[in-house]
Write a structure and sequence with these properties.
By secondary structure, the protein is of the alpha/beta class. The chain has 2 domains: about 1-120 and about 275-335, Alpha-Beta Complex (Quinone Oxidoreductase, Chain A, domain 1); about 125-265, 3-Layer(aba) Sandwich (Rossmann fold), CATH 3.40.50.720. It is about 30% helix and about 25% strand. The protein has 12 helices and 16 strands. Helix 12 (about 310-320) links the parallel strand 15 (about 300-305) and strand 16 (about 330-335). It is globular. The two termini are about 15 Å apart. The model has no long low-confidence stretch (mean pLDDT about 95).
Length: about 325
């Protein structure tokens, strides 16, 4: 089968090479999927191989067709059209075929094509787990959540774009951050009630929007830049979820301790990486997301696309993501 491997070379981005490797066969809970489209995420370029590392097949979001099944698979049959975010410990979706654990896979939305579907899994899982599993917001009680506020730092990115919509469905008042007019417009279209600029004085802007503090903060952007501001903006006994790394020392005391703030991390790959007892939750989440999309309650966030799937387009996708100017998601579809 054809695949795109990254190797370390003298360039910052490394080299992407088209290779021909054996097609794997599924066993256990695995299914073999013929890839139709892939979605790109910042994790793709963050895990490119470094000095001394083996070549890697990257890519995690994918949509495709089930070709064959392991002996323990009960959720799917051959020919099913599926989508998923994959497993960071295994070869990725930048290949013609991919083995993936069926328990982190679901049937893709029937109202979307493959590329639109491939834009959803990683960001939808991250947003869902952040809000409903880590912050413990109940998605089924919008009336009880009414009056509670959520600040989403990085609202126009892939995760923020889904989180805005999920939070509104859950009944929350949403304040999203965006630094450019086009990204602010995108957040408003998705349902954000207020917009502030994360490059400015966020606590002051929050006050101007009518909020002294917020009940929840979901930080999908730069932790170092916003750490002190989050301490000011979070309400006593509030909760904060984080998904990105940090460079500087983070003072976990200060206002966070005095306010009894809950700070937690979300890592979408944790369930598959550690084969947790509740790994099938990712199947359940993606199944629910597909239902919400097909009911018209959740909008797909694919906002840029390339074709076909090849080394040149994957490298171009990485460059666009690294610019940090992406709005929504970038997809690549079809093989040459």
């Amino acid at each position: 089968m054809r695949a795109i491997q990254f190797i370390k070379d003298s360039s910052a981005e490394g080299a992407a090479l088209a290779v021909d490797i054996p097609t794997p066969s599924p066993t256990g809970y695995d299914i073999l999927v013929k890839i139709k489209a892939i979605g790109l995420n910042p994790v793709d370029f963050k895990v490119r191989p470094g000095e001394g590392e083996d070549p890697k097949i990257l890519g995690y979001d994918a949509a495709g067709t089930v070709i064959s099944l392991g002996e323990r698979v009960s959720l799917f049959k051959e020919g099913d059209r599926v989508y998923y975010a994959g497993d960071i410990t295994r070869p990725g979706s930048n290949a013609e075929f991919q083995l993936v654990d069926s328990r982190i896979v679901a049937l893709r939305p029937t109202s979307l094509d493959a590329a639109e579907s491939a834009a959803l899994p990683l960001t939808a899982l991250t947003a869902w787990e952040s809000l409903f599993h880590r912050l413990r917001i109940n998605p089924n009680t919008p009336d009880m959540n009414s009056g509670k506020s959520l600040l989403i730092i990085g609202g126009a990115g892939g995760v923020g774009s889904i989180a805005i919509q999920l939070a509104k469905l859950a009944g929350l008042t949403v304040i999203a951050t965006a630094s450019r007019e086009e990204s602010a417009d995108w957040c408003r279209e998705l349902g954000a009630d207020h917009i502030i600029n994360h490059h400015g004085d966020m606590p002051a802007q929050l006050g101007e929007a009518g909020f002294e503090t917020v009940n929840y903060i979901a930080n999908f952007n730069d932790i170092d830049q916003s750490w002190a501001a989050m301490g000011e903006m979070i309400a006593p006994q509030g909760s904060i979820v984080l998904i990105t790394g940090h460079e500087s020392h983070l003072d976990m005391a200060g206002p966070f301790k005095m306010k009894c703030v809950t700070i937690c991390w979300e890592f979408m790959f944790a369930r598959s990486m550690f084969q947790t007892d509740d790994i099938i939750e990712q199947h359940n989440i993606l199944k629910r997301v597909a239902q919400l999309v097909d009911e018209g309650k959740l909008t797909a966030t694919a906002n840029d696309s390339l074709s076909p799937i090849n080394a040149e387009n994957i490298l171009e996708g990485h460059r666009r993501m690294e610019s940090k100017k992406a709005i929504g998601k970038l997809t690549i579809s079809g093989w040459e």
